[in-house]
Amino acid sequence: xxxxxxxxxxxxxxxxxxxxxxxxxxxxxxxxxxxxxxxxxxxxxxxxxxxxxxxxxxxxxxxxxxxxxxxxxxxxxxxxxxxxxxxxxxxxxxxxxxxxxxxxxxxxxxxxxxxxxxxxxxxxxxxxxxxxxxxxxxxxxxxxxxxxxxxxxxxxxxxxxxxxxxxxxxxxxxxxxxxxxxxxxxxxxxxxxxxxxxxxxxxxxxxxxxxxxxxxxxxxxxxxxxxxxxxxxxxxxxxxxxxxxxxxxx
Length: 250
What we know:
Number of helices: 11
CATH topology of the largest domain: Glutaredoxin
CATH superfamily of the largest domain: Glutaredoxin
Order of helices and strands: HHHHEEHEHHHHHEEH
Mean pLDDT: 87
Number of strands: 5
Shape: elongated
Strand order of the largest sheet: 1-3-2-4-5
Structural class: alpha+beta
Helix content: 55-70%
Radius of gyration: 28 Å
CATH architecture of the largest domain: 3-Layer(aba) Sandwich
């Protein structure tokens, strides 16, 4: 319907500007000001009489933008699958050789991420074929950045999972002191940890995660990726398990 109405407008405009041909030597413009004003008035009058075409046009534009966004995300999931699902620098829990991979973008200050943590632990415990890739995505302030850097640095001492789990279980305000105290509680060498937090590989991992999140349209935490599906929010155990089962079934 929208297409036919716009076509009608085009015909009206074409009729309005039709005039005898002029020679190439003449410099008379194709549409003089009076004709231009007449065309604009025809369009205005038509829109006033049929305002629904504006809504239809906006709906069509939004649908086009949504499809372009879906297509861009799908392309990113394909072209950057190695970074998303198989990055050697991203921590992994569960079965590193699992047949299904779940990726989580998270922040240690995110209450919804902490709410989702028991779901992930349950999934890993019940599904021996599940690989979980953890993408540090510190978007909730300076303490989040410090926590993410400390967590990645803990990986160099072989204590990422212990530190990660402990951090996810914390309640209350997160501060640098709380982060370092937690590190000591899980047996990390604090001096080495602080040194490793500035390691180029730690900085590179955080930058890579930020870049991936932007490319995938991830704007909040938690966000999960399972094969070609991006799942925002703490959707719960059943929703994640359902998508894992679908992926496994092909």
